[in-house]
Amino acid sequence: MQYERDTLTIEEVLNTAPEVWEAVMDASHYDIKPGDSFFIKENPTKAFFIEGLEKGSGVTYSGGKLIGDDDIIPLFSTGTMINIMGIHNQFEVRSAGVNWIALFDGEQVYKSDEGELLVSFLWKVLKDLSVQKKLI
């Protein structure tokens, strides 16, 4: 059971096939908000935090820099992924020794690899549920 970090990495997102990423974004109905992490599509080398939302213009970050919503990719946190999967569905995460177990709508069970980080495990589950179109 690992808690080393709470947010996806740029590499985890970039290693996701475009069609899978699209399925996640469609299924999640994700709305950006201040405090969320993201990276810039054209320069995926550094993560930033959203400082504020500018209606019709985008988001502010790094002391007031402005960038358009379409130019950024969110880095989901553990809590965000749990909320996405549980907002309209029954979703539970449990620890089981050195593993994690996720239960979805009482029918699908996911088990992490030994020592897998919780955030990485939840990302794997979210991608699978999104591709299967299981999230309402």
Summarize the topology:
Blueprint: H1 10-14, H2 18-28, E1 37-40, E2 43-49, E3 52-54, E4 58-61, E5 65-67, E6 72-75, H3 78-86, E7 91-96, E8 99-104, E9 108-111, H4 118-131
Antiparallel strand pairs: 1-2, 1-6, 3-4, 4-5, 7-8, 8-9
Helix pairs in contact: 2-4, 3-4
Short description:
With 136 residues, the protein is an alpha+beta fold.
Provide tags for this entry.
136 residues, alpha+beta, 3-stranded antiparallel sheet, 9 strands, globular
Q: In words, what does this structure look like?
A:
The longest helix has 14 residues, at about 120-130. The strands form three sheets. The chain has a three-stranded antiparallel β-sheet, with no helix packed on it. Strands 3-4-5 form a three-stranded antiparallel β-sheet, with no helix packed on it. The mean pLDDT is about 95. It has four helices and nine strands; from the N terminus they run ααββββββαβββα. Helix 2 (about 20-30) crosses helix 4 and helix 3 packs parallel to helix 4. The protein has helices spanning about 10-15, 20-30, 80-85, 120-130, and strands spanning about 35-40, 45-50, 50-55, 60, 65, 70-75, 90-95, 100-105, 110. It is an alpha+beta fold and about 140 residues long. Helices cover about 30% and strands about 30% of the residues.
- Please indicate the percent range of residues in DSSP E strands (runs of 2 or more): 25-35%
Q: Can you list the strand order of the major beta sheet?
A: 2-1-6
Oligomer: single chain
Tally the helices: 4
State the secondary-structure class.
Answer: alpha+beta
